[in-house]
Amino acid sequence: MILGRTERGTPPVEPxxxxxxxxxxxxxxxxxxxxxxxxxxxxxxxxxxxxxxRPVDDTTGVEGKHTTTVAMxxxxxxxxxxxxxxxFGTPGQDRFWFLWDELASGALGAVVLADxxxxxxxxxxxxxxxxxxxxxxxxxxxxxxxxxxxxxTVRQALDLDPDVPVVLCDARRRESVKDVLVAVVRxxxxxxxxxxQTVTT
Length: 201
Description:
This protein is an alpha/beta fold. Helices cover 28% and strands 26% of the residues. The protein is built from five helices and seven strands.
């Protein structure tokens, strides 16, 4: 076997690596989503919630949550032999927003996780990506205790553009998360192609 080539004589595939952000409100399931799909042990920067943080951390609806991401979550998933996604989960609280610009640099697109019990918590993330023209999809995390709504109802509630995909998902299930990530890649590719055409015409 020739060094650097496979047994069939074809050169090894150099995968394309893409960066995807996973954003949304506090306690919406970002860390769970990254962990469910990552093929490596996810890097997590979680700290225990303390009494000192209660005045600034709104735990309404997620009273059972005892930790919070203070920097980022990181994971990796290979969608195809030639396509690898790096996942960066953003912190959910307002006081960590200064980290977002660094995490968003070079991102192909983003998943904005939404919880129908606290839909307003994802408004800030939607606004962030819209203002920076970063393509995103809404992943509605279907919690067992939350009311389930059709995607179009969620779209209207968030006042989204018609071309923004809204995908129902379970952040605990690998296959469900993969569907969301595929939707992000497809939407980002279409978004980029459309904007490139707009610039050249």
